[in-house]
Amino acid sequence: MKRAILIVAVLASCRTAPAPKAVSAAAMADVAGESIEAAVAVPADAPGGGVDFENNWIFDRFGRFRRDSGGTGTQNGRRYDEVKIELPTGDRKTVYFDITENWAHWAPP
């Protein structure tokens, strides 16, 4: 009897876990900052209106860059910075930052 229980216990512990669900490559892509829907949130307490935060984030993501142009706007009650950059390769990118919380806490110097 003990042997049967031991065999059942060993067999039960040998079961394999079910295979993880398949995830498409598109779902795994890092799209942070590529659209308003995926805008990078600038912390409320980021100094200088969040410009240093934005520059550091862009540098960490792309390396050296030059700010080409940009602006702010609102959509669905949120405020966004749109920053157009140029990379050393000549590629141009647009990066979006959600500045809603930072904007609400900003005070003129």
Topology:
Elements: H1 2-13, H2 25-28, E1 40-41, H3 51-62, E2 66-75, E3 78-86, E4 92-98, H4 100-105
Parallel strand pairs: 1-4
Antiparallel strand pairs: 2-3, 3-4
Give a verbal description of the structure.
- This protein has 109 residues and is of the alpha+beta class.
- The protein is 31% helix and 26% strand.
- It has four helices and four strands.
- It has helices at residues 2-13, 25-28, 51-62, 100-105, and strands at residues 40-41, 66-75, 78-86, 92-98.
- Strands 1-4-3-2 form a four-stranded mixed sheet.
- The chain is elongated.
- The model has no long low-confidence stretch (mean pLDDT 84).
| Dominant shape | elongated
Can you summarize the main beta sheet? 4 strands, mixed
Just give the CATH class of the domain at 30-105. Alpha Beta
User: Helix count, per DSSP?
Assistant: 4
Q: What's the end-to-end separation, in Å?
A: 82 Å
Average pLDDT over all residues: 84
CATH topology description of the domain at 30-105:
Dihydrodipicolinate Reductase, domain 2
Quaternary structure of the protein = single chain
Question: Helix- and strand-based class?
Answer: alpha+beta
Helix content: 25-40%
Radius of gyration (CA) equals 24 Å
Number of strands: 4
Listing every helix as H and every strand as E from the N terminus to the C terminus, the arrangement reads HHEHEEEH
What would you say the CATH architecture of the domain at 30-105 is? 2-Layer Sandwich
Strand content: 25-35%
Strand order of the largest sheet: 1-4-3-2
Stretches with pLDDT under 50, minimum 5 residues: none
